Amino acid sequence: MNKYLTNSKFIFPLVVLIIGIYLVPINIFNSDFSKILGDKGDARFNNYVLEHGYKYLKGEVSNYWDMSMMYPFKNVTAFSDNLLGTMPLYSFFRFIGNTVETSFQWWIISVLILNFVISFFVFFKISYNILISTAASYIFAFGIYNIGHFDHVQVFPKFIAPLVIYLLWKFLTDRKLIYFFWASFGLVYQFYCGIYLGFFLVYGILFLTIAYFIVYRVKGFLQIFND
Which residues of the chain have pLDDT under 50? Predict the structure, then answer.
């Protein structure tokens, strides 16, 4: 990975990433961060969930899973996306002194950066082509699909999904259990980043696995679990 960072040809995807951050979140926030991405429903709800997690880390909330919005009902946090996987990002910006709203804005920017960087890493591992990897990563992080979900920013933290799919493919082709372990870990993490994204990822890897066995007609594959 270090050789990638020191190679001058990787300046191009870095520039494209900066352009994407400027055109999408910054352009909406304004340079003074006076606006919030999203609507008055999901945006405020997601901000509330992230702030609840921050207060839990600070010790101001005794139980993470019992948000007070439906008090005295228990386990309210588990009713929807709990954003636990990316809550530390938001908490970091709160810990260094940012306001609730500004931390939420930086959380969005950080998630979009992770979407681009990790997807670029995966695409480059597959194609070894800078232009293809950069274009694919830009679409993944800043494409029209994301623009269509500006009112539902809980679907933004999907950076682990390309890595999970890549690890699953490595497991299917190389048949090393370490890839299966990390792919499983990544899938669980995706559920904690967003439950809907977790289910979508399950569907994706299920179809990928079925297609692999149909196309390659692999026999005796499960034997590796007994070795």
Answer: 1, 4-5
